[in-house]
Amino acid sequence: MRRIVPIILTFLLLIPFASAQxxxxxxxxxxxxxxxxxxxxxxTPGIYDVKVDVHDNGQRVGEIYDPVEGWQSTMYYxxxxxxxxxxxxxxxxxxxxxxxxxxxxxxxMLARIRQNQRTWDSEEREITQDCPEPEPIPEDLFFxxxxxxxxxxxxxxxxxxxx
Length: 163
Description:
The structure is a single chain. This protein is α+β, with helices and mostly antiparallel strands. The protein folds into two domains: about 5-130, Immunoglobulins (Immunoglobulin-like, Sandwich); about 135-163. The protein is about 20% helix and about 45% strand. The longest helix has 24 residues, at about 140-160. About 20% of the residues are buried.
């Protein structure tokens, strides 16, 4: 028993010095279009898949750009986007992905990385979008558009009846 106590104490003293794995992200952009840099610290060196999920009131409202697949739902990962390397006895990696929010409202973002069916998440954060107010359509242009649409419908019906 006396031999076990020093081992346990040594283990307990070393726990605070163990480095915790961390996934974090930073956003750059103001309205709907964002570059999101995902950072992984203290992970095993290797290649990881990356996704940034975008939600508004519990609904997924984002798209992520994959250089191979193109634009797709933020439900999907960008495969092999992040490489973690060891430098100065610390492991670190980051990847920047393009995100499009399909709403002008504030959104919630969460970064996630994956390797071999294991996933790690960042903290979820609310992103405030600073979108300019859309300019209203002038009344005269609105009525002109309606008149042209009605004229096209009338011409289409007339042509259809003659045929």
